[in-house]
Amino acid sequence: MSNKMQGIGASQGIAIAKVFKLEEPKYLIPEENVNDTTAEIAKLEAAMTKASADITRLQEITLEKLGAEKAAIFEAHGQILNDPAMIDDAKAMINNDQNNAAFAIHTVAQKFIAMFSGMDDPYFKERAADIKDVTDRLIKYLLNVPVLDLATINEEVIIVADDLTPSQTAQLDPKFAKGFACDMGGRTSHAAIMARSLEIPAVLGLKTITSQTKHHENIMINGETGVVILNPSDNEIAEWTAARAKFAEQQGELLTFKDKATVSKDGYTKFVLEGNIGSPKDVHGVLDNGGEGIGLFRSEFLYMDNDHFPTEEEQFVAYKEVLENMQGKAVIIRTLDIGGDKTLSYFEFPHEMNPFLGYRAIRLCLDKEDVFRTQLRALLRASVYGHLGIMFPMIATVDEFKAAKAIVLEEKAKLVQEGHKVADDVEIGMMMEIPAAAVIADQFAKYADFFSIGTNDLIQYTMAADRMSQFVSYLYQPYNPSILRLIKSIIDGAHQAGKWVGMCGEMAGEAAAIPLLMGMKLDYFSMSATSILNARRIISKLEVSAMEKLVEQAIMCETNDEVLALVEAATKEALQ
Ligand code: PEP
Ligand code: MG
């Protein structure tokens, strides 16, 4: 009998193979004390040398297979291994308390792991996994326990494990490792990031898969839906094999769109497909996926990944890097959008009943002008390295926009006076994500050079439904005619004033939204990098003239589902 499980789809694709159950050798940490502490320290140092050689080798393999960014994980491992705070603590335990080396390393590691996993920031939580990975390796060498080498697998398998450490993932050869399924993890864990880079399917967070599977039994995983089937029937295997072939065909077809222009079936060439990024290093993913610009750089991540407000110089370096790497293609950088769910460790926000409706984004920047001006100076100085657009988040009133723009112009004048160069073509625009602004988009269009529609917030504020709440998630309705009418009026308002308009909310990359946005003649679609090629494919198969008629019908519908059904009926055949 087959057994169906539901986990978190962490890397798309379908894999069908035999289970390779990755069972870590079990060992106990000895508690006995030692007499010869000098010999014990020498043992620790020998284990460190072996672990360090492994880490260097893994760094080289990863660099070759996955590139510098992923290999950096092992640089971090090297740093952990040589971190004096940890090693000195362990040596002190050996010297002072005569603890054995494995016990000392284990005890010190537990302390650091507890510290990092207790932090809210997912980045630091992941560091706990790195410490465990490095110290487990050391302990195995100290106890003569075999260090498992996944590189020896030579048949097609799906790895089933409690969790996969970065060093284990790095050893996987995609020729044999067809995917993996783990009890732990989610979309932002290392295992997920590695799976996406290797382009192999992964389903994580399955909770009990290790206890439900046997080594070498059949298994199928769908990294998109998160479904896993253990011991599938012949019929299920046939069904999934066909789906896998279809997926492979679609991926192959998508790649052909990488270097193609974005053109609709009836020859409309004005749509531009861009990527959303959170850090300068994300630019490469956008370019690799055929992105034609950056429609949203969420600059708040520079602030959140820091322990102080980033200085003008620190920000200048980051913005310059993005602009240079995009080589003259448009880059829209959003000014600090902090508050709501995005907080800073070094700044105390006032306590409010509804932080999403409170002191945040442009409201905070207009209040804390020093923070705002520092960012604007960095942006303006970087502007000479490419084609920059500056965008303000959470604008509700024309007065806010005018005030923010006036500060930009003041800083520009000051910089020029100080002898800095500032580009003449910097565009100043705003997010359209608050209904009050959307309704009078035509008025804003007199002052803003462009709009970018932030549907993530526009939907939450229009539907009065917190985007973080699972209890009202049914109200996240991008296709509700109220939302569609608002979006259309924003686009029309901009166009009537001769301004361009983009969308950088999640909706811009959704397959069902693209036909409607084509019909509304949205100019710029900005989305996560991996959605770009499919968006280009969809646009190439549809006619703008037909989509304009579809929009007319859609805005007269009553419900979200009615619109979705209408879009599906109108596009299904063309998109097959
Ligand atoms: C939005 O609100 O749609 C948006 C793009 O901004 P964020 O998701 O960062 O709030
Ligand atoms: Mg927003």
TrEMBL record:
It catalyses: L-histidyl-[protein] + phosphoenolpyruvate = N(pros)-phospho-L-histidyl-[protein] + pyruvate. SUPFAM superfamilies: Enzyme I of the PEP:sugar phosphotransferase system HPr-binding (sub)domain, Phosphoenolpyruvate/pyruvate domain, Phosphohistidine domain. GO terms for biological process: phosphoenolpyruvate-dependent sugar phosphotransferase system. One of its GO terms (molecular function) is metal ion binding. GO terms for cellular component: cytoplasm. Residues 257-543 form the PEP-utilising enzyme C-terminal domain. This is Phosphoenolpyruvate-protein phosphotransferase.
